[in-house]
Design a protein that fits this description.
alpha/beta, single chain, 9-stranded mixed beta sheet, 14 helices, Rossmann fold, VC0802-like, 15 strands
Length: about 400
């Protein structure tokens, strides 16, 4: 790699106003975390761009890691020069000679952020195009589909040359939109919901309901492994494992079978909301997709939501299963989710759950049961694990959307 830095473009962050500094600070922090093993790098940021000075570090490894950082629209390996024309021409030619292969075509694309520079965009394109044609035999111009697009960015204090735009993951930096509690079941959907929430800047903590001996240690490990995959994207993630056996047994005993799933989901939501309150969260995130199962009809959601005023984020609400599976494969959670270890919802699922439950009926059934002490007990006995990122390298998902 023949570059000395990586130029990062903010994309959506550029639309922010007075609070843009907050978003940029979050992005810089997240990049530092992802690149924590590269001790020599320096990161510089201003309102328009961020630069990673490589200082001899492996730029190719850094590029692979940057592809997965939310808040980056695109980035380019680059070199920097001053604004003296001859120095610029020498730098451009030196870079081009190192990357150009015989028979490849090229074009010049100039962005003149510094409008006071004495040459305009067309003049710069002509000067540098002529310079390269003069010094590299058999080089040809192709302005429509060039093999190499030499990009020249003239800014106030320096000039940057690059030949590649690499798509980033887009979205907003994780942590810039507050914290949400992800109801993580162990299935295919909820990890994808967590991923998409992080893409919009939400810091997540996961909540899992565990019902031993009906659910095994392997089902618990499955959820830990899923949380680790999310941690590889966002940084350390807290996993709250809620003991749920006693509550589920009571529901099965006291609530009519066709309403037991509705009550189960209502109790899960109440417990998650209490954990959210204790951990300063602002929302609850679920993997619900409209109409996918009995608890995900509009009537069910209406009856279940009755227990909280907390915002509930449903990133998958309009997606079909194939779309969700595609994303789960891209973020490497699909195979883990497919492990044949049942969670508490699948173990206790009724034969004929109500698809259009009435809020008044479920309230009536629950009025005969004193759930509050059991909710407090479950919250008090919740096990919290801090899951750290495991892999230094992740598969790229910047081209998912």
């Amino acid at each position: 790699m023949n570059y000395d830095r990586i130029l990062i473009r903010y994309g959506e962050l550029s639309t922010k106003g007075k609070n843009r500094k907050v978003f940029i600070h979050k992005l810089k922090r997240n990049i530092k975390r992802v690149l924590r093993n590269f001790e020599k790098i320096n990161i510089e940021a201003d309102r328009e761009r961020m630069f990673i000075l490589l200082n001899g570090e492996n730029g190719l490894e850094i590029i692979e890691l940057l592809k997965n950082v939310f808040g980056i629209q695109s980035f380019s390996p680059a070199i920097k020069t001053d604004k003296e024309l001859e120095n610029m021409k020498n730098a451009a030619l030196d870079l081009f000679k190192k990357i150009h292969q015989a028979g490849e075509t090229f074009k010049i694309t100039t962005k003149r952020s510094d409008k006071t520079y004495y040459l305009d965009t067309n003049e710069i394109n002509q000067i540098f195009g002529a310079h390269l044609l003069k010094n590299i035999p058999e080089l040809k111009v192709d302005v429509k589909k060039p093999d190499i697009n030499l990009q020249i960015e003239i800014r106030e204090k320096a000039v940057y040359f690059s030949c590649e735009n690499i798509p980033g993951a887009g979205g907003l930096p994780v942590g810039s939109s507050g914290k949400g509690m992800l109801m993580l079941s162990g299935g295919i959907d909820s990890p994808v919901a967590g991923f998409l929430s992080m893409k919009r800047g939400v810091e997540i903590e996961a909540v899992h309901f565990y019902s031993p001996p009906f659910t095994s240690e392997r089902s618990k490990q499955k959820v830990i492994d899923l949380t680790e995959k999310l941690a590889n994207i966002s940084g350390a993630v807290k996993l709250h494992i809620v003991p749920f056996t006693e509550i589920q047994q009571l529901i099965a005993k006291q609530v009519p079978e066709n309403y037991s799933m509705t009550t189960t989901r209502r109790l899960m939501l109440r417990i998650t909301d209490e954990i959210r309150r204790k951990n300063d969260g602002l929302a609850i995130i679920t993997g619900e997709s409209l109409g996918q199962v009995a608890s995900q009809t509009l009537e069910s959601m209406y009856a279940i939501n009755d227990v909280t005023n907390t915002p509930i984020l449903r990133p998958l609400i309009t997606m079909d299963k194939s779309e969700i599976i595609d994303i789960s494969r891209a973020i490497d959670t699909f195979e883990i989710s497919n492990r044949p270890y049942e969670d508490c919802c699948t173990v206790f699922v009724p034969a004929s759950p109500k698809t259009k439950p009435k809020k008044e009926k479920v309230q009536y059934f629950e009025s005969y049961i004193e759930f509050e002490p059991l909710i407090s007990k479950a919250v008090e006995n919740t096990e919290t694990i801090a899951i750290a990122p495991k892999a230094a390298e992740q598969d790229g998902f910047g081209d998912l959307f």
